[in-house]
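Invent a record, attention on tokens:
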Amino acid sequence: MALAGARSRKDRSGGTEEMELVFDDNRLASELFGEYDQNLALIERRLGVEAVARGNVVILRGGPDALRQARGILNSLYQRAMEGHHIHQGDVEGAIRMADSPGAQFSLPSFEAGARMQLAQIGTRKRSVTARTPRQDAYIRAMDRCELIFGIGPAGTGKTYLAVAFAAALLERGDIERVILSRPAVEAGERLGFLPGDMREKVDPYLRPLYDALYDMMAADKVERLLASGTIEIAPLAFMRGRTLAHAAVILDEAQNATAMQMKMFLTRLGEGSKMVVTGDPSQIDLKEGEMSGLIEATRILGDVEGVEVVRFQAEDVVRHPLVQRIVDAYESDGRSAAKAEL
């Protein structure tokens, strides 16, 4: 059990209640509360509760629903600390989001007795990643159970990072034999011949986000060895034609810039024992005017096909700097206003 004990009682000062949580390990409790109790302060601000730490004990005061959420959040984070993970403020923010919207991810995550949230995780030898929003939780679980997954939504929602992390984890476990990363190389066509260098040097600038995720999940020297051996392959979308990709994790990033023909070609490369993840943001299409985005067409046609899962991220799923979420919100609001003005 993550909690050694918990007691609740009514507060005579008003309609609030008081809950006392006692954690088994003083060191882990200090990790949980954060430096200068900053993690507790974040929970206070977001849930509207009062949290007072005394050693390995925290006293919570607030409404019953807020106390239940706070207990679930603290219990979940304490469990992470018990597993050896450092508790960052991003982890606290993620746990709060999960507690705020427990029904937004197809009845995930589950809640165990004792109010401990079971959040989806991806783990490699170097590090593990835990879902920070309900849709991230659904996305990770979809990648685990389906062969073809579409992750659609704005920048900063983790759709590409989680896909690469999942592929790296599959490779380390031996569930697949290789990882193939692909992306439309330029905005409106794949004219790579004039660029200097070999194929990897030509496409590297376009695939930097995929590399960043790989280096986060694996040691740099290991990534380089796997790239040199072809176990991890970087392939521009145009070069996927005519291949059958078996026993592989295949990721197509920035798929909103794939044409309908390119997308059909790519999806039909899926081979035995493989998983395919397609990510993109339909609000950032750079195709020529009048040209259909293959991402939009594919999700419309394949949304109800068995073995296919479409996870649609929203602005509230942005897990980068808080300002990024506000920027996304502002652009979406402006887009809605412009659409109304045209009516």
Notes: The longest strand covers residues 3-10. DSSP finds twelve helices and 14 strands in the chain. The chain has two domains: 3-119, 122-318.
